[in-house]
Design goal:
The protein is globular. Strands 7-10-6-13-15-16-25 form a seven-stranded parallel β-sheet, with helices on both faces. β20 (392-396), α12 and β21 (415-419) form a beta-alpha-beta unit. 23% of the residues lie in helices and 28% in strands. The protein is of the alpha/beta class. Residues 1-21 have low confidence and may be disordered. It is built from 19 helices and 40 strands. It binds 2-acetamido-2-deoxy-beta-D-glucopyranose (5 copies). One 2-acetamido-2-deoxy-beta-D-glucopyranose binds at residues 398-399. One 2-acetamido-2-deoxy-beta-D-glucopyranose is lined by residues 363-365, 515, 520.
């Protein structure tokens, strides 16, 4: 009977593609199971899954069954990963306890001075008052770690917390003695990768990082102090992580050959079991549906949140369009990337004493001194450039200069100046020969100088680092923007952290640049991405966790968000690099830029429990089956509420079918918990939002005890459909003694969440 159904299924599929019906071909699937359906005869979930697999296998030798069970999960999801043929998958769907399957999918990676920029100092503030995070364990799922990096030495570290259950797993060029009191755990996961790509030969089968990404994120979160760090003379100084005394556990699930959800699930699974306090995830999926059930990271981190783990994850680098955000589940702190108040420059000095600065990360040593300058218009001819290779050639084109750069490199000119207003990608700042990229106006100065002098000369000088640049931070263009299609009613991203050109440790076997056709290696690298912003926020979360061990993940998220700053270092609203440096909106930056010192002592928090998130899933009309997949248990959805107790607000005014001018009112209920002074009172302060009537009731909250809760209602009255894409303001609860300001961002938008879904 089963075979018959299958043949039927197969003939239907055959008309679509015969590939589907290669009955012997296996693919990798993640299977969700109802753990309460486990028959009593099985001592463990693993033995039940094995028995289930052997009952559906065509040739049920125990060995093949065992090798087909790739991972069994109990802590992150309930279920397993297996290689199955189409017929086995069909048979499995009739097995007791089966809930659903997903194909194992690939993910993408969201690829020193930052601590000072965040106001961290050893004299006062967040670092000393949190012991620099020494009792907190930060787990990272990433590309592995370079254990010999100075950032991971354990000088000054106390004993490893006794509750830690993790370990240091040996493998290629890696053994347990490489872990210490700083790097307390290291594991690796590649069974999913090998099941999906059986031909891959993994050269570094161990937690060792061949890419650099994991070493960078881990040292950003919790690296020890390293004096004299720099990238070839740029960004010189003492490098350290946000929580320099916190512990690091690396779960390597990202490989240069691919990153698979089954491996990431296995990594999160063991991180939960090992007892990490914070999970830092600089990777993610672009959802191809609008359901959290399609997002393995959202599902696995729900289990982590229930265990009290704070989850910090990158928003993605798919900006600046709305709705490009990843990792937006309400129990995850979703981090966007901001710029830093620092720039890296070179100088073009003309023979007449005039100096022109330009952005550069040219890593070579050779500064060029007073060489002849020659103007060559569009630099089309490699031949002509070759004849001038001992000079500095000057090329002008206001279109993309990529061909000219390639020509100049090919001609092996000594140095080149490219004149263009074309926006440059960061890639060009690391050219393999001395270059200067300057705008049309400065370019005209150079051309005039060359044309008016018989012996025009110039010098190119590098390795200039300028700090204190303004304005900073800005939302960087690549940072992914909200709303999150999987859960648009919660405002995302949550906040910004430094993400652009961050200096941190690197794998010394992974090239960071190329000079004169030779790869360059370094113990440090400057990298940009929400991947870099995430471990900054994870490190700060560790400082908060150190001081408030008993706080829930939601309370810690709240502390980070309500104390974030919406102003830059010129005291103006933070700007968006992608929209002509106009003020950024909450869909770009959430609550604003993270502020470690204030986050340690927020005054009030918006708390939430797993039950609250379940009420939200119920109100989003998730089916009982979908809720079981995410929560691993049954819920009858007796209580439903879309109004999660979240520290920010987003309201949709997008009823375009209605022509009426009638106003609509949207109401939000929130409950705050007093974590500040015993007796205190707070007064509501609202910023005006053009086009909306904003009201809060009551306008005063009075607390008599610590941990007392008080509730209030925020109402937004606006048009049925808003004319602007997004307008925003904020509600601050201001402590009457002036110590605390607890701010929530308010966004109103006309975006239709359904329109965000990618085809
Ligand atoms: C572990 O590896 C390190 C570095 O590769 C090596 O120096 C050490 O002898 C190894 N220890 C053991 C116990 O194998
Ligand atoms: C720069 O000089 C240092 C010291 O002489 C040398 O170690 C390094 O390899 C040089 N870098 C390049 C890119 O040539
Ligand atoms: C390039 O420059 C010329 C003249 O300066 C101008 O007419 C043209 O619009 C520019 N093109 C672009 C793409 O900026
Ligand atoms: C859930 O379903 C109810 C009843 O069909 C509907 O009124 C409500 O708008 C739905 N909620 C969401 C978030 O889709
Ligand atoms: C639903 O809410 C009521 C009232 O707050 C509570 O007594 C009950 O336990 C809740 N039910 C569930 C399943 O959480």
């Amino acid at each position: 009977m089963a075979t018959l159904t299958l043949q039927l299924l197969c003939s239907i599929l055959l008309t679509i593609s015969h590939l589907f019906c290669n009955l012997a071909e296996t693919k990798t699937y993640i299977i969700h199971m109802d753990s309460s359906a486990i028959p009593k005869v099985f001592s463990s979930h693993q033995s039940w899954y094995l028995a289930t697999l052997s009952s559906i296998s065509v040739n049920d030798h125990l060995t093949t069954t065992t090798s087909r069970l790739i991972y069994a999960y109990t802590s992150s999801i309930h279920g397993f990963t297996a290689s199955l043929t189409l017929s086995e998958l069909a048979a499995l769907q009739k097995s007791p306890g089966y809930i659903s399957y997903t194909r194992d999918r690939p993910l993408t990676m969201h690829t020193t001075h930052t601590s000072q920029f965040l106001g961290l100092s050893s004299v006062s503030g967040a670092w000393p008052s949190s012991n620099y995070g020494q009792d907190v364990i930060i787990g990272l799922v990433d590309t592995g770690i370079w254990p010999e990096s100075e950032s991971f030495k354990d000088d000054g570290m106390t004993q490893i917390p006794a509750r830690w259950k993790g370990k240091c797993v040996a493998g290629t060029q890696f053994n347990a003695s490489l872990c210490n009191k700083k790097l307390i755990g290291a594991r690796f996961y590649n069974k999913g990768l090998l099941a999906n790509k059986p031909k891959v030969k993994i050269s570094m089968e161990s937690p060792r990082d061949t890419s650099g990404h994991g070493t960078h994120t881990a040292s950003t979160a919790a690296g020890n102090y390293v004096k004299g760090a720099s990238f070839f003379g740029y960004a010189t100084g003492t490098a350290r992580g946000m929580a320099p005394r916190a512990r690091i556990a690396m779960y390597k699930a990202a490989w240069s050959y691919g990153v698979y959800s089954s491996d990431v699930l296995a990594a999160i699974e063991e991180a939960i079991q090992d007892g990490v306090d914070i999970l830092s995830l600089s990777l993610g999926f672009s959802l191809d549906g609008n359901s959290l059930v399609d997002d393995p990271i959202a599902i696995a981190t729900f289990a982590a949140m229930e265990k009290g783990v704070v989850i910090v994850a990158s928003a993605g680098n798919d900006g600046p369009l709305y709705g490009t955000l990843n990792n937006g589940a309400p129990w995850v702190l979703t981090v966007g990337a901001g710029t830093i108040d620092r720039k890296f420059e070179g100088i073009l000095a003309l023979g007449n004493g005039m100096q022109i600065t330009f952005v550069s990360l040219y890593p070579g040593n050779s500064s060029l001194t007073l060489l002849p300058l020659v103007f060559m218009d569009g630099c089309q001819s490699v031949e002509k450039m070759r004849r001038n290779k001992n000079k500095i050639v000057v090329c002008k084109d206001n279109l993309s200069i990529s061909t000219q750069v390639a020509n100049a490199e090919y001609a092996r000119v000594n140095g080149a100046v490219f004149i263009s207003n074309f926006p440059l990608s960061e890639f060009y700042t690391r050219t393999s020969f001395p270059t200067a990229f300057i705008g049309l106006r400065d370019g005209q100065t150079v051309i005039d100088y060359i044309q008016k002098n018989s012996n025009p000369r110039g010098s190119l000088i590098y390795q200039k680092t300028v700090t204190g640049t303004k304005p900073a931070p800005m939302v960087d263009s690549y940072s992914s923007r909200g709303p999150f299609p999987g859960c648009p009613i919660v405002l995302k991203p949550d906040l910004l952290a430094p993400g652009s050109l961050v200096l941190a440790s690197w794998s010394p076997i992974s090239a960071v640049a190329e000079v004169q056709s030779s790869p360059l290696f370094s113990n440090f690298n400057l990298e940009s991405g929400t991947s870099m912003a995430t471990p900054h926020a994870a490190g700060v979360a560790a400082l908060v966790k150190e001081v408030h061990t008993d706080w829930s993940p939601a309370a810690i998220l709240s502390a980070l968000m309500t104390t974030a700053s919406s102003l830059d270092n010129t005291f103006s609203p933070i700007k968006d690099k992608a929209s002509n440096e106009l003020p950024a909106s909450p869909l770009d930056m959430g609550a604003g830029h993270i502020d470690p010192s204030k986050a340690l002592d927020p005054g009030l928090v918006y708390d939430a429990t797993a039950e609250d998130y379940i009420k939200l899933l119920c109100a989003m009309n998730y089916t009982a089956k979908q809720i079981r997949i995410i929560t691993r248990s049954t819920h009858n959805c007796e209580n439903r509420s879309l109004d999660l107790n979240y520290p920010s607000f987003i309201a949709f005014f997008n009823d375009f079918n209605s022509n009426s001018d009638a106003k609509v009112v949207q109401e939000f209920w929130r409950t705050v918990t007093n974590v500040g002074e015993e007796r205190s009172s707070y007064t509501a302060e609202l910023t005006a939002i053009d086009g909306l009537k904003v009201k809060v009731e009551p306008e005063k909250l009075i607390f008599k005890h610590k941990y007392e809760k008080q509730s209030y209602k925020l109402s937004l009255e606006g048009p049925k459909s808003l004319k602007e894409v997004v307008i925003h303001g904020s509600l601050s609860w201001v402590d009457d003694r002036g110590k605390y300001v607890v701010t929530s961002t308010i966004a109103a938008t006309s975006i239709m969440p359904d329109s965000l879904l990618r085809a």
